[in-house]
Amino acid sequence: MALTRPITLNKAFSCLNRSVQEEEMMATLVGSDFTCTGSKRRNRNTNIVTRFMSSKVIGTGFSRGTQLPGGLLQERDKHAKWHGIPVLLQKLYESSHPNSDLSHAHSFLKVLSSQLSMEAMSFVTEDRKSAQESTFPNTYTFDLFGGVDLLVEILMRPTLTMQKKMPKMNDDLVKDCLSVLYNCCICTEGVTKSLAARDDFVLFLFTLMTNKKTFLQTATLIEDILGVKKEMIQLEGIPNLSGLVQSFDQQQLANFCRILSVTISEPDIGNDDKHTLLAKNAQHKRNSSPSRAEVNQVTILSIPGFIERLCKLATRKVSEATGANFLQELEDWYTWLDNALVLDALMQMATEEAEQSSTESSDESSLATSPLRHRLPQSMKIVHEIMYKVEVLYVLCVLLMGRQRNQVHKMLAEFRLIPGLNNLFDKLIWRKYAASNHVVHGQNENCDCSPEISFKIQFLRLLQSFSDHHENKYLLLNNQELNELSAISMKANIPEVEALVNTDRSLVCDGKKGLLTRLLTVMKREPPDSSFRFWQARAVESFLRGATSYADQMFLLKRGLLEHILFCIIDSGCTSRDVLQSYFDLLGELMKFNIDAFKRFNKYVNTPEKFQAFLTQINSSLVDSNMLVRCIVLSLDRFENQTEDVKVMEVLSQCCLLSYVARVENRLSFLFRLVNIINVQTLTQENVSCLNTSLVILMLARRKAKLPPYLIALREKEYAEKYPGCLLNNFYNLLRFWQRHYLNKDKDSTCLENVSLCLPRYKLSPAAPCCS
């Protein structure tokens, strides 16, 4: 495992004192040489022990390991195997004093860099397991003797000048300093945290990004530092941030997105599913002001042209790979290129040779003319572009989920992000391979961290965020598909939804298929064990969420989505709870209030065995399936009030699912379990839907004047379990929490109304129904 960083110099001295020739060395070094000048007496003692003890008394002793006598360092080096690093550091320190030209210092740094880079490369290329067991003595020694602090001092020295114009350091020296610092960060535990604690150094690093020659090394080091920084950096504190970002070319901007992803995302405080709503409410009361991440989002959105350039990056085309061995070549490269630094360094080699063209290229033409082009596999360039797009899509996704969502939505629509992604879908995002079910993996076959997989998942997450409860969701269709929605509404004799009417047709998808239709096509072809099923279902579900649209549902039903979902739940053998939950939620959105969907359900689930298999999946985890249960309960309630509709009454009498839920004993069974599996202390964003579903069941019972029998049944269940009060008291506490959590927060209340499928909002009195 990586070595830890010492806090003081004591460790360096303890290393020295372990020498087997300690007594002989001390005998040689003992002795004092005093000279007197007037009344002043200057101690020029070279005895290491005496000087160390003296430093404790007068406070002017050693501040870095390189201040130790050179002879002592050289002698100890033979036994400690320091490979001359302390002596080189001593020379580096002596040749890097202020106002020096630093040319000699650079020569010493190059020697040190070559030693340290070998260890960093082994860390990058070794198998992850063996890398964790390795030690990196060179980087450890370099840090132990103050090398990290010395390089920081050298880098920041121009900022200490009193001159109006800051003196410029040699670019190669800056690059080597940054590379050595990064090597120390990845090989020696604690160096990164130490650098992150220096706010002045972190902000200074951003100023180095103005130089294209040092940009890559700077960006990589900043990314590593911000990843461990305790407090999120404030982007508004970076000098001339707007000018800095606007000066980036497209490649630099893509790399900068890796840094932005750390500064605009809320810090991970643990698994969100396990972070209770009770704790979140308490945290919100303590910190009601906008978080640093939210402030940073506002800052970055204020930069002119920023979103437009991200859209261009996300949608720019890349050369397609050719050849039958593409997948194997890609996998072989990725096995080695696990670290982004190595990949970017190799790509930089190509771009540096093509720097003659200073104009920004959107099609990588500079790479095409580079002399190194034949040395860089085509698949590697595609991976490089994919990794960029992953970071860009992530930043856009975070901004779409922030407080400035409407502003971001407007810009993404204006800059045609969705049509651009639609044009890339078949050629890059979901390419067709000869080996149809092949998935590129990282270090092992169970790892879903390859660039291709990350790209697909980030793309699906973006679609989910883009469509969720927003009228711009219709941009995922093309003009022909929008006309189809209008025709469905006309045939059903219902008005078109306002969002569809207001959609700007110049901003929708081009081509024969829209993005949603393309997604449905690959979704139905996905193998049973695919890791994409969950995200695909979530993306499609987000298109349906919000106010129920019969036309939207029929559009998807006509494309066989319901049958596909039922196959996955009943017949595919799927056991993943996450995937099943996503399918249950999607099925609920697809079927709610839609009598045609229930008719199709009954046609597919046409045997008692199939229906029992479906019920088994539902009952196996109500946390996963309760949204579907809620949909069925609400739909049944509406259908029962449409007695004059012959088609509805026919389906009501024939549909096994509606008949099952219509029976009171089955509703009570759902209610018992929904109330019993949650309490106020365990409520999370994941399982709070169980509370809302139980409320829906009871509110509908109250509407029909049947609430008392339900409450009596709950009490009888308590006595049967020989635990009086366990259900009703728990439910009462849940209701009181529900009041506090939802009724005073407009956003959550609106979301609750949407997911409750247009139920009227009931305000609970202090005397909750269960008290009656």
TrEMBL record:
Single Gene Ontology BP term? ubiquitin-dependent protein catabolic process
Pfam families per record: DUF3689 (PF12463)
InterPro entries from the entry?
TRPC4AP (IPR022162)
- Provide the GO MF annotations for this entry: phosphatase binding
Give me the Gene Ontology terms describing cellular component: Cul4A-RING E3 ubiquitin ligase complex
**Name of the protein this chain belongs to:** Transient receptor potential cation channel, subfamily C, member 4 associated protein a
